[in-house]
Design brief:
9 helices, globular, 12 strands, alpha/beta, six-stranded parallel β-sheet
């Protein structure tokens, strides 16, 4: 049921650290775009030890929560249930507070990745590569399970990470082959490359791009463009940033919190760009 403009409702993003989060700007811009004057969205620095206490103190005015590190797995046993999407990667970034008091978890990073790629015309690929093997890499694999018909090569730094990525591939039904990080430049032969490394993680690879490249999804959004994204664009390749992921996953969160389906993507993206300067 869509929210009424006069409803006094709350939402927030939790994590630690949290000061860097753009979620308040994105959601507040969406409220403004749709005239939801009674809605507010805050940020709270909450770690794993404090999470249960924070959840127990929520009142009926709360509509939902966005979660970032280190809470995406810690929250699962504290909820009344999670979606199949969240269960597929054992990570929740969205908590919906229902009128009957239940709290359920979802993962909007996965459909957010797919939606961001679809927006750029990437709805099906025959193969792909992933740089990195952290939490975002498992979400990337889950997204690729929906659009990639062939092999995904994951470039990782250790055998432990390689085992983890192969395990996620088996769980998600994706054909995953792992390769050593020293060969990461070979990823650029794939039609779609998803870089899940933190800022600076791929800077040393910029001199190894081929003349022709496909699509790069670099999950970093600040600073932007990354050196890799800048050179990729010089090669006339398509580039998506972490902001594309952030706004698309936030739209799915917003719809679950408010019940609204009116478009807010543009308002959120403009707010994100303003915040990043």
């Amino acid at each position: 049921m869509p929210a009424r403009a006069t409803d006094a409702r709350r939402a927030a993003v939790l994590g630690s650290p949290i000061a860097h989060s753009l979620s308040p700007q994105l959601h507040t811009a969406a409220y403004a775009a749709l005239g939801l004057d009674g809605w507010t969205y805050d940020r709270f620095d909450v770690d794993e030890a404090a999470l249960a206490g924070f959840l127990s103190g929520l009142g009926s005015e709360w509509a939902g929560l966005s979660l970032t590190m280190p809470l995406k797995r810690a929250v699962i046993p504290l909820l009344d249930g999670i979606t199949d999407t969240a269960a597929s990667v054992e990570a929740v970034n969205t908590v919906v507070c229902h009128a009957d008091g239940r709290r359920t978890g979802d993962n909007t990073d996965i459909p957010g990745l797919v939606a961001a790629l679809n927006e750029r015309g990437v709805d099906k690929v025959e193969s792909a590569a992933i740089l990195g093997a952290g939490a975002t890499a498992s979400s990337a694999l889950a997204a690729l399970s929906r659009i990639c018909s062939g092999e995904v090569v994951a470039y990782v730094r250790s055998e432990q990470r390689a085992d983890e990525m192969r395990g996620w591939g088996e769980r998600l039904g994706v054909a995953v082959r792992t390769a050593d990080w020293a060969d990461a430049a070979r990823a650029f032969e794939a039609p779609l490359v998803i870089s899940t490394t933190p800022k600076g993680g791929t800077d040393h690879l910029t001199g190894e791009l081929p003349d022709r490249v496909g699509t790069l999804f670099d999950v970093v959004y600040d600073p932007w463009p990354t050196p890799l994204a800048a050179v990729w664009q010089q090669r006339d390749g398509a580039v998506l940033s972490g902001l594309d992921l952030l706004v698309h996953q936030a739209v799915f969160q917003f719809e679950q919190f408010t019940g609204e389906t009116r478009p807010v993507l543009t308002a959120m993206r403009e707010a994100g760009l303003r915040a990043l300067g």
